[in-house]
Records
---
Amino acid sequence: MKIAAQTTAADDRELLRSAAVTAGIIAAGYFRKDLKTWTKENASPVSEADIALDKFLKSALLAARPDYGWLSEESVDNPDRLSHRRVFVVDPIDGTRGFIRGEDSWTVSLAVVEDGVSVASVVYAPARDEMYDAAIGEGAQLNGKPLIRQRNPGRSAPLIPAPGAVHQELQVAGLNYTRGPAYPSLAYRLVQVATGKLDAAVTRRGASDWDVAGAACILAEVGIDFEDVCIGALRFNRPEIRHGALAALVEPSLKAPLHAALVKVYGCPQPQQVDLERLTP
Ligand code: IPD
Ligand code: CA
Ligand code: CA
């Protein structure tokens, strides 16, 4: 296992912030312009902007921290990342569908993961001029101001976006809530739970490390409950990078109905599968 140099999570937060700002400038050269797009094997869209950002981020971040590993949605996965204690986990553009449509809530989502935990991260929405960042033990901020856990006091019922099948289960369970806006970027949806604009956000089974590691440190620093509904605490940079259904929520009272609805819709792995996953580095 390679040992990273003695940079702190706060140093890494600064590095990620500066790389994200430059990535945002590069992305602006493609946003709302004639853009080459295509579809990946898993039917998700990708564009030349995703690839350009990945190239820039990989060279800038690894030049600054040559002893860190690398995991990105747009780079071929290399098992070498498993031999590094610290790894960059990168989604160059999260919410590519929205980016291609010219909507403004797409994000650059970056994290440094140490021993499986997201310890420094940014979720940057350049077209909205919103920079969310955090370092473990140092708190989270939005555009340099501390992010404090809060609920929107003007809202009578919780605001929760979710896939249709999950809404159906929540209604059957009798939860009193309002269906929230489904921003195309999962990272953006998740950090809105930290701002209090949303009361909860959920993911289907199958989100990858790069979709959630950026938001994970921010949510943890704000004190938001963000877990896999079947196995609990999130771990990143494992051989299997896909996750089960996840839920981020402000109010503890939302946990039982949300977790139950997600388990009902997406199920849980068999106990022996969970044990094997826990034993895998
Ligand atoms: C997608 C977005 C979307 C989520 C998908 C992700 P991408 O990421 O975050 O909100 O529902 O699961 O794959 O392809 O835009 O980076
Ligand atoms: Ca993504
Ligand atoms: Ca992406």
---
Amino acid sequence: MDLKGKIDIFEDYPIEGISFKDINSLIADGEAFQYVVNQFYDIAKTMDANLVGIPESRGYIFGSPLAYKLGLGLVPIRKPNKLPGEVHSRTYDLEYGTNTVEIQSKAIKPGDRVILIDDLLATGGTIHAAAKLVEELGGEVVGMLFLIELTGLKGREHLKGYEVDSLVTYEF
Ligand code: AMP
């Protein structure tokens, strides 16, 4: 399937110089959405994971049906002050701006095997921070899945040692 044909591009959004990849047109197409989830499933089924970690908010879109198909639980990784109880948090640099992510301390137990999934790999800052949160709690990140990878931003170099898979690539 031509996934790139389903992804809209907005130049200079949300700020000048960013070529924003808008997946909303893809997920509005039932056949394309199902195809993408099935592709993720084919990659993930051999990872022997027991949890799927989903960065807010677009990680939720693909992570939820993937976890359902695999029969695995979900672990939300959220923006600050959204999660009750004890949390671990990390702040990192984005392609534009900075961001902080949090995870509930109770969400990961030592030995958990976690797949992380998001819509897009840019600098890798988000997923790297998410991986460190999982590891701080004793979990292992067994795979990182993305619909889109912006290869020119070299996110993979930030993620050495992890299994990283993406379905479509753009340079920027
Ligand atoms: P990063 O932490 O740099 O890998 O950025 C990852 C997150 O930022 C992804 O979850 C995307 O939702 C968002 N993002 C970054 N760059 C873009 C872009 N060019 N188009 C769309 N979303 C982006």
